[in-house]
Amino acid sequence: MYNELGRIRTKKLKLELNDQPTKVKNRIDLLDVYRGFAILGIFVVNIIIMNSTFLNQDEFAKQWTSNIDQITERVLQLFFYTKFFPIFSLLFGLGISMQALKLFEKNKLSSSFFTRRMFFLFIFGALHIIFLWSGDVLNIYAILGLLTTIFIKKSNKLILILAAIFLFFPFYDQVFEYLFKFLNFQPETYLSNYTGETVNQIIKNGTYQQGVKLRLLEYLANIPVLFVFLAPIALSMFLLGLYLGKNKIYESLESFIKQIKFPVLLTTIITNIYRILFLFVFIKLEIFKIELFRTLLIKLMVISDVIMGSFYLWFIGWLWYNTKWRKILSPLKYAGRMALTNYIMQSFIGVILFTSVGFKLYETLSPSQTLTIAILVFVFQVILSKIWLTYFKIGPLEWIWRCLTYKKLIPIKKSTMPNNI
């Protein structure tokens, strides 16, 4: 009788486990390290904008003339700006394909699943904009992520061709300028009544409601940056990540990293030479004033930055598999496993640091100070993430997103399976 009860209990447990959302049997730590690294880089860039919005950033930056701040600014230009957004986009596309493959293997792949998943990501983004920060990219990720799912069953060749087109096409400014005129959409008007001084006063001394209004207007005013500059990069990287996932590159990362060593190093050297020439030579030439040449030179700079971001991933992977640096890099995985939570948390910390509801530090910090704070905040997030993941399976926002996606309450606390089951 006891044996029969044991068999029934075991069978019931197996049925319950099969009904749970798809799980990663052996989590790939390196992918989480990549995500953690991307979260760090994104915050290093975002905190600069949090400290001084686009409206006043150039003028504000002129006052920092000390050697340490000049060096910091060069470090940011050479190693951070436009490098980490592509990384995170690539990993997002890879995540979509990995999840799609698992669902496909269980014969559960459906468009409704990804539609629901991206819809709730869009809601997260909207709430992020309203309550915390206008520099949100989750809205773009949700829209483009849903578009990417259309290509899950398409050929590898088509996916790579489209990824290249979206990355290399240089005339998005002209296309969207025509589209905006056709739609009579004038994003520059949303902040036309604001000056750097009025923005400063609202952020540092205004009410929270005034801050909400300003964030909404900033988001609308920044639509050209989001959809003309960032969206093509994101979609290209989503598709590249989709390609890598469809071909299960994540199952043989070590050999893949070895295989691409020469092309990665060669393209990185070439594009870095171009990046240095662009920053210190080309922008000072008369030819840079001609719109066509300026557009092409800037596009080449963007491509070079994307390649630099890809080099970061390759280099971290090479260190991971070939050196003792794995122990040093390993803590990044905790922040990476809670990437969504940490991304939103960084904006919350930004509100506390810079606005009237906190320390009112807006436009008071130098580049070197913002970089230092970003690193300290990230170290705090790594420690906090490790503590959280000691007791829970995933981050709190990841858990909410998963529950909404699967339309069920999913256990979040870790539990030890009894040995006698």
TrEMBL record:
Keywords: Membrane, Transmembrane, Transmembrane helix. The chain crosses the membrane at residues 33-55, 75-98, 119-152, 158-180, 219-244, 264-285, 297-320, 340-359, 371-391. Coiled coil: none annotated. It comes from the Bacteria. Residues 244-408 form the DUF418 domain. This is DUF418 domain-containing protein. It comes from Neptunitalea lumnitzerae.
